[in-house]
Amino acid sequence: MLFLDHSIVYIYTMSTILLAIESSCDDTSVAVLRNGQILSNVVANQKIHESYGGVVPELASRAHMENIVPVVDQALKVAKIEKNELSAIAFTRGPGLLGSLFVGVSFAKAFALGLNIPMIEVNHMQAHVLAHFIDDPKPEFPFLCLTVSGGHTQIVKVLSYFEMEVIGETLDDAAGEAFDKAAKIMGLPYPGGPLIDKYATDGKSEAFTFSKPDIANLDFSFSGIKTSFLYFLRDEAKKNTNFVEENKADICASIQKTIIDVLMDKLVLAAKQTGICHVGIAGGVSANSLLRKEVERVGKELNWKVFIPKFEYCTDNAAMIAMAGYYKFKNKKFANQDITPMARYKM
Predict the structure, then answer these.
(1) pLDDT tens by residue, 109-120
(2) Would you list the domain boundaries of the chain?
(3) Which of 41, 92, 199, 257 has most Cβ atoms within 10 angstroms of its Cβ?
């Protein structure tokens, strides 16, 4: 079957094969999907940022330019797909670092133009939500999704593949940023969130307490927790310069529990207010072991049906972009060649 769009003729076959590109921050990722099944999901990490204690945007965009071609090549090889078999190119339009996004968007535009196939723009945050549809079991609509990462913290009411309503979000810092900043205050290397999770396994979560925000609605705030944490360590260091090293496990377990408690309190409130019992988590912080355990535990207590993606689909990855692109492809939601990336891109 043929149809005409923007003066390019697209041919629909029985097999839909997408190549997806994710370049919103510091990971260059490419995935290949056939008929809703992920065939490959390749991620190139950027180690250069570790020495700076955080992502340096200019360095990230340069690394994306170096990585994009070999990562695309590897993803196609792993999937055993030739580029002329592709039906469309899906890509992250935003939100994210503008320079990083430009690399992915520009490559997608050139690749799609060269192959004479359509492009599909994907919202990075919507893709995190739709990562739940990569594997079984899949949630039913409507469901709630707690989407937590280094840049975002949201509770999303998901009504369909394309209709999502943010019913709660952070007023200042994201949960992932709070983890990384706490780790930096402790002197841990970047990225610090996973290290806090690691050290916390040997610590006592009730050893120390930190202030929590008092916000009545479903919104979040983490700036106060960071300030409380900073002042606590500063005061303890005055009494014992080795305090952090001697109490590392307990400190990590305590700050982790504080952040996760804030997330869970709001998620429970959202489920109560909406009456929705299908609940999922997504985003980089959804890889946190305590958050995963707490969602499972609370879900059993409150009779939720809980959905948690595999670790590889929690952090930034192209498989989730491919899945979001697949549903858009089925509905012929294509992008124009004049499309540009968006650092801020609302759901």
Answers:
(1) 999 999 999 999
(2) 2-129+316-330, 137-308
(3) 92
Q: Is residue 266 within 8 Å of residue 213, measured between CB atoms?
A: no
One fold for 2-129+316-330 and 137-308 = yes
- Under CATH, which number does the domain 137-308 receive? 3.30.420.40
CA-based nearest residue to 282, from 252, 319, 257: 319
Q: CA nearest 31: which of 91, 94, 85?
A: 91
105-113 long-range contacts (CB < 8 A, ≥24 apart) are: 105/23, 105/339, 105/340, 105/341, 107/21, 107/68, 107/72, 108/21, 109/337, 109/339, 111/19, 111/72, 111/83, 112/88, 112/337, 113/337
Per DSSP, the three-state class of 96 is coil
- Sheet containing 153-158: order of strands: 164-169, 153-158, 143-148, 278-282, 305-307
Spell out the alpha helix ranges (H) of 288-336. 289-302, 318-330
State whether CATH 3.30.420.40 applies to domain 2-129+316-330. Answer: yes
Tokens of 332: 């012929």
Token pair recorded at residue 255: 């700050």
Q: Copy the structure tokens of residue 25.
A: 């921050």
